[in-house]
Amino acid sequence: MEIAELKEKLKSQIILFLNLTDLTPADIKDDEPLFGDGLGLDSIDSLELIVLLKREYGITIQDPKEGRKVLVDVNTMAEYIQQHGKQ
Fold first, then answer.
1. pLDDT, tens digit (0-9, with 9 covering 90-100), for 38-49
2. How far apart are CA 51 and CA 4, in angstroms?
3. Cross-strand bridge partners of residue 35
4. Closest Cα to residue 41, out of 67, 61, 2?
5. In 3D, which of 65, 66, 59, 60 has the Cα closest to residue 82?
6. CB of 35 closer than 8 Å to CB of 73
């Protein structure tokens, strides 16, 4: 899967998994931080994103430090999925 296609799919999945019904994939910038001042996600949302990675891409993240590196923005998630995921 092309990286651009993966990013669009990932944005749709984030909206679906986190029930962000007021957003569209176009509202999420590839380099916008997912947490804090960016998209404004919290620690519960990070757990949901870890479940998404496991369920959709076969990626298991157990180390919180690794999770913080992966769940920065859509770009870092997509790159990690391309390197480690089952697509």
1. 999 999 999 999
2. 22
3. 41
4. 67
5. 59
6. no
Q: What is the DSSP letter of 25?
A: G
Angle at 82 between CA 53 and CA 1, to 5 degrees: 105
Q: pLDDT digit string (tens) for 6-53?
A: 999 999 999 999 999 999 999 999 999 999 999 999 999 999 999 999
- Global pTM reads 0.93
* 3-state SS, residue 41: strand
| Residue appearing with tokens 């519960």 | 44
Quote the tokens at residue 70: 């992966």
Angle of helix 3-17 relative to helix 74-84, nearest 10 degrees?
Answer: 110
Other Cβ atoms less than 10 A from the Cβ of 52: the count is 18
Q: Which residue has the tokens 């990070």?
A: 46
